[in-house]
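Subgroup meeting minutes
Present: P.N., E.W., G.H.
Scribe: E.W.

1. P.N. recapped why we're keeping a running log of single-chain structure predictions: easier to compare across weeks, and new members can see raw inputs and outputs side by side.
2. G.H. added today's entry (711 aa).
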Amino acid sequence: MLKERTRPGWRDDDPTGRAELLQKLSDRVTEAPPDQQERLARRARTYVDLRAEAILLRAKGQAAEPLLLRYPALALLSGDGAAVIALRDAKGVLHENPAYTGASALQNVFDAAHQRVAQIRDQIADGARLDRYANALWSRTAADVTPSAPTVEIESPPDLKDKPWRTEANLQAMRLVMAKEPGEMTSGDLQILTRYSGWGGLSIDKVQDQFPADLVPESFGLIHEYYTPTVIADSLAEVLCPFLPELAGRDGIVRALEPSAGIGRLIRAFTPRRCLALEAGGQIKRIEWTAVEFSKVSSTLLRALRGDINVFHMPFERWVREEGSHYHGTLGLILSNPPYGERGAFAREDRDEFYFEKRAYAYFMRRALDLLIPGGIGVFLVPAGFVTGKTNRPLREKILLRHHFLGAYRLPSHDLRGRENVPGAGLVMDIVFWRNRGGELREIDEADTYILDGDYFERHPSHILGAEDGAFAGDEGRSWRYKVTGELRSLPPLDPRPICTACVIDTIARSADLGAPQTVLRDEDEVPSGTDDALRPALELGRRVGRYLAAVGADDAPRAAALWPELHAALVDLAKTQGNPRQRKELRALADNGVSAAERILNAFTRSGELIAALSAPPVVEPKYTGQPDDVVAQAELLFRQRRHLNIETLHKFHLSQGGSADQADIISTLVAKGWALDGESWDELLPEDAYLTGIDLWAKHDRAQARATR
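Output recorded in log:
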């Protein structure tokens, strides 16, 4: 029998065992002498790969066990586990037990598992950190062999009901959300709220007199308020669940944004029951959602349904202007079914001309995708004309330069009985998957040329999930001549297109609109004149919260550290003396009317009255880096600019944390070639040329360099 020490923490549903195993692998590497660490790191990754192969083999009924020996190996055991039938070593060589006839026939079995794991491995963006790589690989492999649970439909989703039913359900939800506070809602109440399906395709005029006085839908909703069909939201979550571990931060949290949230169908589709990675497997801790929604009705309902998420009631353009710097470079996942019409007056809220787009979906997609972390994933439901339309070639080019096109699916516009799958919308939609490149290509990747030309679905006809009827016409996908007929029950698993590894990618200069704190907060309209004096202390605190978060978002560590102590004490005192601000109707009313100070003080507290994590502890501001993993010059400039002091060890650690692979000697030679200099008593400080050749200690630098040269 194999000793248990060679088979640690096998059970994939045991988070403690998995964490202990990864810690053991990490300790093996970090506790070794420096000259052995790289070799041991390769062995640890080999063990991770072999464990993934074992997952595939076990799914086919083979008793496969990965072995954590000096050199990792993969064993195939007899049915009772008493003996080894065959052993595949770290080099891929199969060693057979002569006592078992037919062991040689297992070569193909091992090879098939090895090849499939190699395919999955190549699709993982972040392979630098062992724990993140292992969790992503094991999660994807497990999802590859785990059949999706059949969906049991208890009743038709609200979006498939007829117009009279939808109208009455909408009215019931609106009356209820105004009659009860979120904390008073029962499970039955929440069920009523989920039946709200928006007013797209319905008549507001006929029921105008039945709306609650403070919750009248905007006429804008008649044009844009077509919520994501439930089956699409659920299917999309199933496709994305295996990707979640690689999108998590170092704290195990996936930070996600829905910039046109509606009542949160895309958000609510990500449940522990649906996502293997969200169950007790330990791959991630949770998804931390931020939602932006223009409609007062929808944002009010979403706050009631999901009190655990940050909901901003405002146009996305205003959110970018006021909150963008807090989120830039922190988001691992973005999902959206954006509005498709003209942006209108909202376009003036974002003054960055680089992002000027007349059509709302084009602006949402470009602006949101640029907020992602390198390797982050963005998914958008867009009109069919984006992928196929010839006049959209310039728009595709803008996005392809910064983001890798993972794949797309064209959704049925009509079911087999001829009914629209999005009632009243009258268009064909595509789901498009993107991955952030971490920079900008100098020119379009040759492999993306057919996508740029609008020929993606000609190359991948199986991604059209139905039968096409009529010729495609109209770059927005609206045409009575063209429709796609089919029954959508689920999406095929996404097989991501390989990303270019030889392309030249330049660092993207951060937009001034996202980098300058003064663009985040506008003092002149924070507290309206005539505001009740009893509300002013809370609103003034809201302004201070905004200034503090702006400092954190701009990586201004000294300013953030100076603001936090008094701000924290004041927020604690406010909650102690006046109660949870989220329970004060006057503040909520101001927030609904767009008063930023009210929104910030409400968002500073959780539903239960506790301070949010970003305010409950002193700030830990780390430099945000969006360039290439191996660009040590850009990394050195970022760290030195923020700290005005930099040594080799600090830069090397940061370089490795971003996915780089250079050792300290390579880093030094690269920087010296670019004009950087070494200095310091230990000869480990790094300075750019302009800093090295200026200052009052030039002679001291000269003496240290001369002393070093004589050694």
